[in-house]
Amino acid sequence: MNFEQQLKALVYFHLEEHKSGRDLTQILEEDDFARTAIAPPKGIKKSSFSEAINTRGLEQLTYVFEHLYAQAFDNLPAKYSELGELIAIDGSLIDAVLSMHWADYSKKSRKAKVHLGFNINRSIPSKIFLTNGKGAERPFVEKILSPGQTGITDRGYQHHKNFDLWHREGKYYVCRMKANTTKNVIRTNEINENTNVFYDAVVLLGTPNVSQTEEKVRIVAYRVKGKEYWIATNRFDLTAEQIAMIYKLRWEIEKFFAWWKRHLKVYHLIARSEYGLMVQILAGLITYLLIAIYCYKNYNEKVSIKRVRSLRIAIRNESRSFLQNQKTESSYSLYAKT
Fold first, then answer.
1. Are β-strands 183-188 and 124-132 bridged in parallel, bridged antiparallel, or unpaired?
2. Are residues 182 and 109 part of one domain?
């Protein structure tokens, strides 16, 4: 199985919602279209498929993902361009099996964790990293976020030295923080009483001589249905209402994780090694990017299950036409020989 066949098989696995490597290899062996158009000419057994997934293709898949992301970035519209380039950052756990010793999580369970950057403006994944389930999330902001971009993170990413570091590197952040964090107020900003924002100030954040930021931090707080959200940011150029809106957009990465897992079956394991799982995850991201480009090009829409179903139906219709042509050509060849 060469790389092209490997990639086609993995995209087919995610697009058609297969749930295991055994399921996929059986389809590649028994389904006429998959056997002819996707599987290697001589077919492939489960053991050979597993060996390929766990040992080959990672570098090539990384290359394909990065170039597809660049293509999608250039072609998909930026929905929130007035707010800058927004990247939501979060981690997501993947249930592993006990034999996956590298996926350390607890004595009774194994889990891996993906650390993802999600481009909010274009609704596409931008960067991905994989660790065991205990992998710390904060260090991956540095790897995911580029200068000029604004990273949107939850409370688990609050770290005052990191706030200073990101600011000095020209990276922006909008991070939910603990409400009781010590604040040394430098100045307060005027509040628009007609909004749900009730606090806006520039501060040094944290306890002096212990954990206080060296760079100034802006704190914006707002209420939604009686619940308070305290946001730390170095975006001094936006209104408090825009800061609140940016943090609300963090929910988009949660929706992506849920959709990606449900409709592309990305977390159904077909690999057990860390290498192989990263191959599987990258193939799932590539599939999503292909769908995103397809939905915009053909329907001027974001990814939706409705359009994915239409795509699956179109592929099946084409497969029937493909197989009919194969039979016709075969019959013609047999007739010509006789």
1. unpaired
2. yes
Give the Cα separation of 306 and 30 in Å (integer).
28
Claim: this prediction has a pTM higher than 0.90 = yes
Beta-bridged to residue 184, according to DSSP, are 204
Read off φ and ψ for residue 251, nearest 5 degrees: -60, -20
The DSSP secondary-structure symbol of 147 reads: T
Closest CA to 141 of 199, 211, 90: 90
| 269 lies in some domain | yes
The reply to whether 237 and 278 lie within a common domain is no
Q: Which residue has the higher pLDDT, 20 or 114?
A: 114
CA distance 277 to 290: 20
End-to-end Cα, the chain, rounded Å: 35
> For residue range 217-261, what is the model confidence (pLDDT) as tens digits?
999 999 999 999 999 999 999 999 999 999 999 999 999 999 998
What total number of domains does the chain contain? 2
Give the span between the Cα atoms of 88 and 137, in whole angstroms. 13
Whether residue 71 lies inside any domain: the answer is no
